[in-house]
Design brief:
Organism: Nakamurella alba
Shape: globular
Protein name: ATP-binding cassette domain-containing protein
Keywords: ATP-binding, Nucleotide-binding, Transport
Helix content: 25-40%
CATH class of the largest domain: Alpha Beta
Distance between the termini: 41 Å
Number of helices: 10
Radius of gyration: 19 Å
GO molecular function, one term: ATP hydrolysis activity
Order of helices and strands: EEEHEEHEHHHEHEHEEHHH
CATH architecture of the largest domain: 3-Layer(aba) Sandwich
Oligomer: single chain
Number of domains: 2
Amino acid sequence: MTPMLEVDDLKVHFGGVKAVDGVSFTVEQGSLCGLVGPNGSGKTTTINAISALVHLTAGSISVGGRVSSGRTASVIARSGVRRTFQAIRLLPDLTVLQNAMLGADDGEKVLQPAFAPWRAARAQRRAREAAMTALERVGVAHLASVRPTALPYGHQRRVEIARALAGEPDLLLLDEPVAGMSPAERIEIGELLLSLKADGTTQLLIEHDLGMVTRVCDFLVVMDFGKVIASGDPVPTTRNELVREAYFGRKHVAADDSLGA
């Protein structure tokens, strides 16, 4: 398979804090890769670096075979990389449809109708079509005219995903997309991610629900204290002793092992 994303010896330091310290991994084209680890392990900083929201201290990032490190966030987005955020970033004064339109390639023109009106109208039409398709895909198209503040948390999460999908990404970065959702909603979003993979969308998923990532991911990368501590097929990787210690602590793992002996 051809790599869609290559992260090589990535380092992101904030003063003396080594948030990401020598991370390397590859995400194959068309795959769904999970990036997991305890809170504070460097996962979000890693995808912030991939999407050019933080500066690299060292290392390189390539998307689709092209070096992307050093480019601006807007250039990265236009090159086919879209993302969601841990904290929902929907604009409360816009409708669900308008929020989703912002993720389309010409979405910024939604807020600039006075600029070259004939071009803006055409761009808005394309953005509207892409946004409605994305909203239908995540199951909230019937709420297109509603403002996001009127929606329950789980539905707001879906709108956030739809906004990213409206850009028809080659690489989709998902930062805890099912946080705050019910078990049934988590299953539905998991099925959505699998359908996106079936359509060829490469995905890098940050998620704390290990049951979900082992169910939907092809490959796992596990981080702790800014470093990769394990990677590989999901089920054996989650059973790795270093991974178990990172999540549950050495004493807890030792107790479990003694009980199972």
